[in-house]
């Protein structure tokens, strides 16, 4: 059987959508880390359950005016509890950046506990009390 480029592309897209439907918690955390590290609000929109225009504008300002040479790393991921619709995770987030106002290099490390909810096969960060 001969497969044309168009058919091959359709098969690849179908397989990718099936794979996305089963996004693992690790896949989500990698997607979240990449979006933050790039300062990409388009990617971050797909990470947060409670995305708002206000949140987008704050993050755009943060990445454009507050920090320079921003780098984030996540490590020590623990899935504390998980089912098909919700997961409780804990991880270490390490931010390194230059403060735009002072020019000082800053390094900050936090251990975070977060709740994830699954929507359409993809995980999203549930709202925290601080984000409400």
What's this entry about, in short?
It is built from 4 helices and 4 strands, in the order H-H-H-H-E-E-E-E. The chain has helices at residues 5-21, 25-38, 41-45, 53-66, and strands at residues 67-82, 86-99, 105-119, 122-125. Strands 1-2-3-4 form a 4-stranded antiparallel beta sheet.
Structure description:
The structure is a single chain. The chain is an alpha+beta fold. Strands 1-2-3-4 form a four-stranded antiparallel β-sheet. Mean pLDDT is about 85; it is low at about 5-20. The radius of gyration is 18 Å and the shape is globular. It has helices spanning about 5-20, 25-40, 40-45, 55-65, and strands at about 65-80, 85-100, 105-120, 120-125. The N and C termini lie far apart (about 55 Å). It has a single domain (about 25-130), classed as Roll (Nuclear Transport Factor 2, Chain: A), CATH 3.10.450.
């Amino acid at each position: 059987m001969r497969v044309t480029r168009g058919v091959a592309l359709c098969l690849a897209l179908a397989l990718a959508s099936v794979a996305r439907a089963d996004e693992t918690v690790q896949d989500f955390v990698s997607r979240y880390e990449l979006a933050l590290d790039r300062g990409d609000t388009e990617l971050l929109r797909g990470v947060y359950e409670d995305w708002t225009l206000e949140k987008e504008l704050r993050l755009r300002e943060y990445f454009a005016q507050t920090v320079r040479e921003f780098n984030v790393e996540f490590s020590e991921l623990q899935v504390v509890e998980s089912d098909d619709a919700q997961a409780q995770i804990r991880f270490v987030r390490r931010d390194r950046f230059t403060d735009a106002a002072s020019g000082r290099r800053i390094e900050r490390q936090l251990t975070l506990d977060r709740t994830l909810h699954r929507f359409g096969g993809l995980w999203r960060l549930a709202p925290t009390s601080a984000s409400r």
